[in-house]
Specification:
The protein is mainly β. Helices cover 4% and strands 47% of the residues.
Length: 135
């Protein structure tokens, strides 16, 4: 694929394509760092432990049916699926799809000041494995 402008990402939440409302999406993946240094070592030694992930999404807010609020509000306090691709093209080796379950633990339906564009941001923790598909 090479370099590209990030203008066509696809994000599904609970099987609803939310791409038209999303301003930004960030998928954060990490692993616990475990120190397994032993006597006699002169440098720290480390191994990877449990993996973890979160997703950060910024939406242009919309209260219409099948839009942002109508999709997210009923999910508050539940675990739901999310799928993220770099572009709206089909899943493939140059357009992988990352999917998993997230805990919808927070949502701010109203967030802004007078004259601002109505928007809302969420940061949800992974609730299990994050998969990466290329076909």
């Amino acid at each position: 694929m090479g370099s590209f402008a990030f203008t066509d990402a696809r994000v599904e939440i609970n099987s609803v394509d939310m791409s038209d409302f999303i301003k930004s999406v960030t998928l954060n993946v990490g692993v616990d760092e475990l120190d397994d240094t032993a006597f006699g070592d002169t440098f720290h030694s480390r191994i990877g432990g449990l993996k973890d992930w979160t997703v950060d999404v910024e939406f242009n807010q919309d209260f219409a049916a099948s839009a942002v609020d109508a999709t997210i509000w009923p999910l508050l306090g539940t675990v739901t699926t999310i799928k993220i691709r770099p572009t709206s093209s089909s899943v493939g080796s140059t357009n992988p799809e990352y999917s998993g379950s997230v805990l919808v633990n927070a949502y701010s339906p109203a967030d802004g000041s007078v004259g601002d564009l109505a928007s809302t941001s969420v940061s949800w923790p992974g609730a299990g494995t994050l998969a990466r598909a290329t076909s």
